Write a sequence for this structure.
């Protein structure tokens, strides 16, 4: 008789704030991760595929460039209005 056990890879979500005890260091981070893993109601998120990660990189780069462009245009407008 074969017993098949399937384990899914999941990542702990960024809910680290409730687990902060003192200062942020490697030991405190490891203790918080161990505590979070043992709790049954901690939400996890599935590991993203390489294509999903690449799409998110493109999206974040576009958002950054858009914000920088808007900031630059606003600076030009402020400069033009200050000259008048």
């Amino acid at each position: 008789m074969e017993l098949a056990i399937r384990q899914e890879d999941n990542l702990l979500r960024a809910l680290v704030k409730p687990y902060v005890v003192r200062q942020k260091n490697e030991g405190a981070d490891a203790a918080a991760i161990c505590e979070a893993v043992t709790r049954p109601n901690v939400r996890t998120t599935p590991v993203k595929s390489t294509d999903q990660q690449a799409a998110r990189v493109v999206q974040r780069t576009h958002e950054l460039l858009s914000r920088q462009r808007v900031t630059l245009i606003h600076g030009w407008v402020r400069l033009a209005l200050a000259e008048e």
